């Protein structure tokens, strides 16, 4: 790996890792919510989980590709992760609470990366 490639990967790696972790946690939470008895009360939460899954995936891809738009995508990712955390925090299930925590961590890291 060239020095330039290593430098951009070093810059992005922590954020890529948390985006991937958040994407997986949101997938798990979405699946679990689909099987909860109050599934009809979770529609907005599940829609936000889907958005979060997509933006985390896109953010990781943009950072891995060293895109000139990675910072803007990560800023949007932070906004969506915060929204997802807010939705998940409304439910007391462990999967929702864990997801909310990971979403907050991802939002923080994405904002840090976007401002770097």
UniProtKB/TrEMBL annotation:
Xref: Pfam families: Csp
Domain of life (superkingdom): Bacteria
Identification of the protein by name: Four-helix bundle copper-binding protein
Species in which this protein is naturally found: Orenia metallireducens
